[in-house]
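Why does residue order matter? Because the sequence determines the fold. Keep that principle in mind as you read this record.
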Amino acid sequence: MNKFDKDNTEYSFKDTESVSVAEAKSNFSEYIAKAAYMDEKIIITKRGRPVAAIISIEDLKKLKLNKQNKGLEDAIGKWVNFDDIEKIVKKIYRNRKNQEERDVSF
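Structure:
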């Protein structure tokens, strides 16, 4: 077990290769091919700590899609009184109708 595995267990994945920045720089094309064509994930370390990863474009798309979906999931339950929003919006519209024209210029 290397320092990476011991100190950074949240970043250690089964069958995931970790390499130093210098190693990645020396063999960059090889690691790109592994990620693109063999679906491998490579973690780049600097002084034994993870700083970046090389993944396939398909994995990147999955991450982005997951992040977008998570945003919607995070909204669930945030508005406890969701039914009250319609009343609040109607009140705002009524108040705006009663106001004289507002200056919104910058």
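The domain at 3-57+74-98 is CATH 3.40.1620.10 (YefM-like fold).
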